[in-house]
Design brief:
301 residues, alpha/beta, 4-stranded parallel beta sheet, 4-stranded antiparallel beta sheet, 47% helix, 17% strand
């Protein structure tokens, strides 16, 4: 009977995110103040009052989702995870929750990661698309047939939902082939580039230098990392997996399956939205799910 805490990634942002935490908790107000100082601009104002366009700025989006998740977690009084995991960006939140990273160090890394990824996106016109209703193996097979362009499986979100990533031309070709193969739906996503693909390689050296400059702690509980989909506690391995994650696939389905196999019966999503709760319910119908998105209360179910 283990309790897993999970953290969402980019795309979950919304205007007003984190404001309820700020109003409820002096600790939250202090953490938002620290974040504003560290980032050099008042990200709290953008999160609370900014437009959808404001929140889509690269320097804002990833830190904003991270802050909503981590401040929410740190202000809970009875949060005692037996294991943690995060979807893409959410992995940094998971590492604060299990004690591997401190708040300030993690926020610095998230900011560096966001800007490095943006620069990589500007090098090659690239995008992502979600594929619904097709076996993972078939999606992998079709991506592999496109040898003169970059197209790879990027996010294994749940059975029947896989996101592919690559060049604009490669994704367009793959979408046609996937529709012909019987996918229920194939839809290009409104993203800035090909995340979790080889096209993110230019961002890796910058992120690697930043990660290697920071001391990671031995965590209080395992983190199930995206690229390996298994429990990890060694700080050196955690660092390497974070670097590899930029170009590697997010194996979310496999992470949840591994956590369930290791005893997780309850999953609490901390951060904006309920996307992960929905995915977990599709991955394992026996798992109990709940969330912390607006109020700093962790109900025991």
């Amino acid at each position: 009977m283990k309790h897993a805490f999970v953290f969402p990634g980019q795309g979950a942002q919304f205007t007003g995110m984190g404001k309820a935490f700020y109003e409820q908790s002096p600790k939250a107000r202090d953490l938002f103040g620290q974040a504003n100082d560290l980032l050099g601009f008042r990200i709290s104002d953008v999160m609370f009052e900014g437009s959808e366009a404001d929140l889509k700025q690269t320097k804002v989006t990833q830190p904003a989702v991270f802050l909503h998740s981590v401040i929410g977690f740190l202000c809970l009084e009875n949060a005692r995870p037996d294991m943690t995991a995060g979807h893409s960006l959410g992995e940094f939140s998971a590492l604060v929750a299990n004690g591997a990273l401190g708040f300030s160090d993690a926020l610095k890394l998230v900011s560096i990661r966001a800007n490095a990824m943006q620069k990589a996106c500007e090098i090659t016109p690239s995008t992502m698309a979600v594929v619904l209703g097709l076996d993972d193996a078939k999606v992998e097979e079709i991506c592999a047939t496109i040898t003169d362009d970059t197209v790879v499986p990027a996010n294994y979100n749940c059975p029947g939902q896989l996101v592919i990533s690559g060049t604009k031309t490669g994704i367009a070709r793959a979408m046609e082939l996937l529709k012909a193969a019987g996918a229920k739906r194939v839809m290009e996503l409104a993203v800035g580039g090909a995340f979790h693909s080889p096209l993110m390689a230019p961002a890796q050296s910058e992120l690697q230098a930043a990660i290697e400059s920071i001391a990671f702690n031995t965590p209080n509980c395992p983190v199930y990392q995206n690229v390996v989909a298994k429990a990890v506690t060694d700080p050196a391995e955690i660092k390497q997996n974070l670097i590899t994650q930029l170009t590697g696939a997010v194996k979310w389905t496999q992470c949840v399956q591994a956590m369930v196999a290791d005893g997780a019966t309850r999953f609490t999503e901390v951060g904006p939205g309920k996307v992960l709760q929905g995915l977990i319910a599709k991955i394992d119908k026996t798992a109990a799910t709940d969330g912390v998105s607006d109020t700093l209360e962790l109900a025991v179910k």
